[in-house]
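Weekly sync notes, structure subgroup
Attendees: PM, AL, DS (notes)

Item 1: joint prediction request from the bench team. They want all two components modeled as one assembly rather than separately. Inputs as received:
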Amino acid sequence: MSAVEAGGDAGKRIVRPYGDTTGDGMVQVSFTLPVSHDKRAEGAAVQLANKMGIDPAMLVHAKPMSDGFTFFVVYGRVNHLVDLSAVQVVERDFPLLSAKEVNAVVKRRLRRKLSVVGACIGTDAHTVGIDAILNVKGIAGEKGLEYYRELKVTNLGAQVSVPELVEAARVERADAVLVSQVVTQRDAHLHNTREMSAAFREAMPAGRRPLLIVGGPRFDETMAGELGVDRIFGRGTTPGEVASFLVHALIEKKAKA
Amino acid sequence: MTGKLELDPRLVARARELARRAGQPVVDLARSHTTVSVERAVLRLAGVAGADPDGIPWVNRLVDAVVADVGLGHGVAVPVFDALLREQVGDVTLLAQKAAAGSVRFGVPTGKAATAARKAARRAVGAGIRAIDRRRVERDRLVKRFGDPKQRPWIYLIVATGDIYEDIPQAQAAARAGADVIAVIRSTGQSLLDYVPEGATREGFAGTYATQENFRLMRAALDESSRELGRYVRLTNYASGLCMPEMAALAGLERLDMMLNDSMYGILFRDINPVRTFVDQRFSRQVHARAGIIINTGEDNYLTTADAVDEAHTVTVSQLLNEFFAHEAGLADWQLGLGHAFEINPDVPESFRLELAHAMLARELFPDAPLKWMPPTKHMTGDVFRGNLLDGFFNLVGTMTGQGILLVGMMTEAVVTPWLSDRDIALQNVRYVLGAAGGLHEDFVPAPGGFIQQRANRVLGEAVDLLERIGEQSLLTAIAEGTFGIMKRPADRGKGLAGVAKHEADYFNPATEILEGAAA
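Output from the run, pasted for the record:
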């Protein structure tokens, strides 16, 4: 789906912001400058707006805040044009589903709970990542995978050895294994991930292996193949994205089988 | 403020009786068990301070050494002070260092040696508790000198940069802009650390580590602000997670004023073992009672996972349980910042009237508690204009229903951590509503038999039904079966279980002895 179709604006290529008349280019912005409020501060705000392409800029509100800060609201005509044909959108290769949708798909297609086993492996004691994805508490206002009724989550916590992880995956009949790696000293995250994927390859035949997913702030998301895992998630990943991917990969697997 | 809902007093009494019945077995459990964190808190009160070169606190090293030799069930006070007397070591921290190096063995003395060890432990821990007492007197003196906020609710603002030296000027700016209470949010995941980090810290994940030194630095800064502003600015942190008892002790020693301290939050939202949580919670609340700290409970969290209309009664049930556990631990009503929140989907018809009914119900059930009113988060979408309007309605309910503590909502919730301007706009919103409608509760009486009265009575009825069901099994079973939120938390699972032990016949804890003596 391209951006042009998404907007439903076939035919239009160049647009400008809309205030109350087509083509007026009007925008509204607010910002804070680290200066005390006086005439000069207001001039500074107009200068910034001008540099942002807003010309003429109307300073409609200026308010001093604590010591040496002023908050501004500016309305004005922006002279930039938007070329819709040049818009580039990064495509996600799986649809983002709500918790309700994830639960519904698992219930309908799998007809049992989807089992997820998570851990921090090696010496890594930073459970921030795995807990953000798995704990009900979640992150950024999104609940973690424990919140999903149709997912059975086993969080092994920190400093789990690879054999322990493989064994837990076997006991829990894991559909997916989630591993978080924060520590990157001497490329520990890459080393640990390779060790983990090799152990799963050795212990289980291809068709029975759980989906292997690693996450952490320093991973390169394109290295999945090289590390022997099914997916890598980087900084800023939310539980909803992981859950959506699980469902997507599961359906793909089922469809292929 | 009471009597506007025409609640049936028999039903209210029944709800309290059921909460007591559900909670009592948990109290019995807490009285017969200890945890590594309770024991570490005892050692902190006895004066063990600092950490080894790897940053592991000496209290952890010392408790681990005692557990390795004699187990946890006797309590660590007697083995530690027995060794101190035997080895002629002058200082408990020095003993911890020796124990960590393996040069001290611990035993469980009997007879005269046991009596001597108990006496020495009582003296050392007594000094720690007296230090907490002095901080409480100091708070009372400062509140008297600088004064309390002029208005209710108190305005509660969150600061969290990860760097204590950034937090300080932000907290002072927030106080200047009108905040009465500053809460420093902890780093993500600190609740699952089984030790308290040491020293001033400059990096955290979405929050700042709670350490004794960070507590001290922030309290000193807010004392400065209190002096400047002519009102006592309170400081809040978290007694939750695996180190709840130690956090309570450190908060008492550094004169923090409020602590987040829910009875079930760690179990439900952090998968901490239920027994561990209840044991830790009881001890921490005894310390809070002694220190004159106001606790804040976390009922708002239920509404972020469950539907705020359908599950409104679970908030009431949790408030009743929190009240029972708090009273049992010696906390007075003025120390109970029971939580609740404005989390109904704004697209639900009559959502504002429902919010009013729920907030009034909490107010009338707990007339002497400074309820903590929490702002919308679940339905904040990034539309900051709508968010600011929603926060205005939240503030209006807060003032119309006489809430004690109002956590300032940010229209940029779920977008960014609050900017300077976000805080300023949010505080302007609060000031406008409190200024324009601060006395509205005097005029506002819901129509007899109308929507609000009916709704409040219905929620109370549902809460009683749920408490009846819990009573038929037990609170631990109810938690195990997923009654709260939707999480199933069995008593033999969860984090921190390894650090729980049943009391041996000779279990001794000088801190509990002193704290319970004071409560009796």
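Discussion: DSSP finds 20 helices and eleven strands in chain B.
Action: AL to compare against the crosslinking data before next sync.
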